[in-house]
Amino acid sequence: MIAGGLPVQAGNESVAGIGVAGAPGGDLDEACAQAGIDAIAGGTGVTPGFRRR
Q1: Cβ 23 vs Cβ 29: under 8 Å
Q2: What is the pLDDT of residue 35?
């Protein structure tokens, strides 16, 4: 996966992806992508992404 992109998972299955660009670093793009996943995940059965460490 490239910086700024995260998978969206339902259960154990990847169902989509989200990508963000434009911040001064890939880690900030990825944080923004995670925030978007977290914001829409409530009640949808979507796993709030995964965080690479």
Answers
A1: yes
A2: 86
